[in-house]
Structures are given as structure tokens and as C-alpha cells.
Amino acid sequence: MSQTITVIRGDGIGPEIMAATLHVLDTMKLGLEYEDADAGLVALDKCGELIPQATMDSISRNKVALKSPLTTPVGGGFSSINVELRKRFDLYANVRPAKSFPNTKSRFPSGVDLITVRENTEGAYSGEGQHVTEDGATATLIQKITRHGSERIVRYAFDLARRTGRKQVTIVHKANILKSTSGLFLKVAREVAAQYPEIDCNEMIVDACCMKLVMQPESFDIIVTTNLFGDIISDLCAGLIGGLGLTPGANIGTDVAIFEAVHGSAPDIAGKGIANPCALLLGAAQMLDHIGMPDKATALREAIVATLEARDNLTPDLGGTGTTRSFADAIASRV
């Protein structure tokens, strides 16, 4: 039985890494069909909109999308295309794994295997209520945390731990200072954690968490936190394993899920054929888990690791001389 997914090829290096990723998926003969949809600068050039209605309709219809990096132009319109997609489809859970890979520039070539689960729709990062006074002297921003938003993201994290056999969830907060917003998040998180007695739960203030991540990343399993803290922590975790070129992301809602490479569109190397496709390939592996193909997801991840171990056609950012396509070919040959 085939499944259709919406494919957003993106801007900059996006089309190159998407072509490489779809090549590997096609090699696996998964029965996937692709429906192309535009967003970002490509969509703006074609039809004057960053996210055309046809793209929204495609995502709504297929329920699953694989997305390359998009560029949000400076000026009017959305503050972020990604934030707008999360709002439109209520993609409340941002799931970012960080795992050590061989032959990277990481200071931790082994031992890191954690997941950041970030609330994706509220808090300071959502940009709600931004205002600058007429004299330009004062800027304000509303930071809103809800019981509903807190409960469902923490429950997602604990359900993920239960489903994947992970043993610990760390609740990250700043309730010692932000007693209302972060305080509510922590209060609700404790209530949810009590319903999962088999999973070890600990609490950590965000600054202490960042310090411990740098010093002892192996001590973390799953981190669950609010939107802005999760944005920062997940990039810190990417740095632990060698950078954003090895970091995928899933944006999960009740009805729709979008999987992506979390790095930017890298216009400085676009068209050169040297972009690393690993982040999007790992996002595709998350997608395969989501649509009920966990064995295929595991096979894809193992093929990426085997190719890194063999130093086979690695792209320049990984110390090799391969191209985007030759690196993908090497992965495809192992999958």
C-alpha cells in the first residue's frame, strides 16, 4: 500500500538535499509517492506568497510532509515560515534527537544519545504581542504558557519515553525566576510525571541544564521544555554531535506532522553540489517511524552510520571530497 507525502524542496541547498534524500528513499522501495508543493522564496517568486493555499491544502490532505530549509525574507509577511506552519497545523511537539556519529567534528564522538522535546506553539518564541513604542525606546512581548499546552507536551515526552524504552525525562524550566509562566509549566509537568511511575523524572533549571549538557551530555535521555528554552537547548545539543548538518527535526500535531532538516538554506553553497544531506535523511527516518515503518527507519539510520564509519564519499563539511549525490549514493548502497 502506497502513501503520499507532501514534499517541499525549499530554498538554497534545499532542492539538492531533497533530491538526494528521495533518491535514498526510492532505493528502499517503500511505496512512497510524492506530491510537490512550494513554500519560501520559490513560492514567492511563482505566486507572490510564502505559503500558497495549494501547499496548505496538500499538507492537510496528505497529513505528512518532508521539508527542506526555507528562507523567510526580511520585511513584511510572516516572522518565520516555520512558525507559521506550526501555528496553522497546531504542530505542538518539536522533537529533535541528538546522537553521536563516527568521523565527525564532534567533541563527543560517542556517548550522546538524547532527545529534546520542545513545546512548539506558545511561550516567548511564538512572538505573540510584540510591540515597540512610537519613540522606539521600549519593546514588549507577551509570554503566555497554558495548562493545555504544558500538559500535552509533557505527556508527549513521557509517552515517547515509554514507547521507545527510554528511562528518564528531564523537565527543564526557570520557575525560580519566572514563577508564573515557567512555574505553571513545572507544576503541570509534575502532575503528568506522577502518572508514569516507571520513568525516572528529574527537574533542572535551564542554565544548569546547559552547563551539564556541555560537561556530561551522556547523563541525559529525554529533555522536555518550553518553546524558547527548547530552541536554544536543541541547537546546543546539535553542537555536541558535530553541528546542524547531522540534526533532524519533527514537528508533530494531532493530525499533521512535518519532518525537516533544521539547518538553514545555506545560499553560499547552493548549486555547488556539496551540501550534506544527512539532516534531511535523518528527518526522513523520523518520518518512517511516524508512518509505521520503524524497521525501515532503523535501516536508514544504520546505513548513514556505516557510510560515516567507512568515510565513503563524505561531503566537505565532514572532511571528505564527496558530493551531495555521491554521499547519498554511498548511503543508498548500504541501505
TrEMBL record:
Keywords: Oxidoreductase. The keyword Oxidoreductase applies. InterPro entries: IsoCit/isopropylmalate_DH_CS (IPR019818), IsoPropMal-DH-like_dom (IPR024084). PROSITE patterns: IDH_IMDH. The keyword Oxidoreductase applies. It comes from the Bacteria. Residues 4-331 form the Isopropylmalate dehydrogenase-like domain. Pfam families: Iso_dh. SMART domains: Iso_dh (SM01329). Belongs to the isocitrate and isopropylmalate dehydrogenases family. This is Isocitrate dehydrogenase. It comes from Luteimonas vadosa.
